[in-house]
Amino acid sequence: MSKVNWGVLSTAMIGQEQVIPAIQRSSNGEVVAIASRGEKAISVAEKLDIPTAYTSYEELLADPNIDAVYIPLPNSLHKEWVLEAAKKGKHVLCEKTAGLDYDELKEMIDACVHHGVTFMEAFMYQFHPQHAKVKELITSGAIGDVSFMRASFSYLLTDESNIRLDRSLGGGALYDIGCYTIHSICNILNDQPTDVYANARIPEKFNVDTTVAGVLSFENDIQASFDCSFDVTPRQTYQVVGSQGTIEVVGPYRPDANESGEGFIRVVKSNGETEEYSVAGDQYKLQVEHFVDSVIEKKQPSYTNEKMLNHMKVMDAAFHSIETGKSIKLS
């Protein structure tokens, strides 16, 4: 196998605007089918030049020509369709957040292992080379000893009918964008926190978190803070603070939203010196190519099952902290 044939479950905009075009740009994959509940897949297939449209997810999963599926359904539907895809022998790239909690994600991973298919949660941002550059700068001692990190992601959500505000569909700011802030902290620091504290704004009319702020504590005395929100102006940034300077990444999660389309890194040292780096990278294309390479080479992606489960442990702890008002210790 040198190429993978993809099917897409749902006509979600993230698929139409980002992931399907990325697969079509990739060197090792092709989108051959898309499915919806009803007729919408037909018009989307025509618009995006996809050969086959199905009016049910079951029909797509029964297609023997499809090797892998991309699932951008609402969070609450991920488990059901990951399990169904695994049963049909399809490799699965599932949009984040893959599971609503650790137990859901573990069941999904176990099913994929049992059926011998590759599974990965679609945290596309981590495949952008700007983050490797940040790690390189930290390792080189560019900012001395790291003691603090902060990550923020927000946008103003005014459409009250948006599924991100529907609790039954796995809505909320922490699932939607806060997951990136937590993920990036653990990714850049290459560590798991020992303690998690979070609080949230939960409007009664939605009963989901629309703003969350929290703190992660690590064994090596590094502290980190994260925040996410549907209630404020768009922001996406993270900063790594050391004894001799600060690294700031502007647009770490969606650098394609920047005017230049590049990741931008600024290093400010204690002596006032400043270094700036622009880092180009097609993170959606890099993600799908890495996933397909893992399928072809029959190995786990670099974002391993263990890493996915570790991330979900932190997410669970943040939700538990919001519910109890207490700091949660991770074992």
Automatic annotation (TrEMBL):
Superkingdom of the source?
Bacteria
Q: Could you confirm whether the keyword Ion transport appears in this record?
A: no
Q: What UniProt keywords apply to this chain's record, in alphabetical order?
A: Oxidoreductase
Which InterPro entries does the UniProt record give? Gfo/Idh/MocA-like_OxRdtase_N (IPR000683), Gfo/Idh/MocA_domain (IPR050984), GFO_IDH_MocA-like_dom (IPR055170), NAD(P)-bd_dom_sf (IPR036291)
User: Which ranges carry the Gfo/Idh/MocA-like oxidoreductase N-terminal domain?
Assistant: 5-122
Pfam families attached to this UniProt entry: GFO_IDH_MocA (PF01408), GFO_IDH_MocA_C3 (PF22725)
Q: Does the keyword Oxidoreductase apply?
A: yes
Domain annotation GFO/IDH/MocA-like oxidoreductase: ranges: 132-248
Q: Extract the Gene3D superfamilies matched here.
A: Dihydrodipicolinate Reductase, domain 2 (3.30.360.10), NAD(P)-binding Rossmann-like Domain (3.40.50.720)
Q: Which family does it belong to?
A: Belongs to the Gfo/Idh/MocA family.
Q: What is the protein named?
A: Gfo/Idh/MocA family oxidoreductase
Q: Which organism does this record belong to?
A: Aquibacillus rhizosphaerae
**Source organism lineage?**
Bacteria, Bacillati, Bacillota, Bacilli, Bacillales
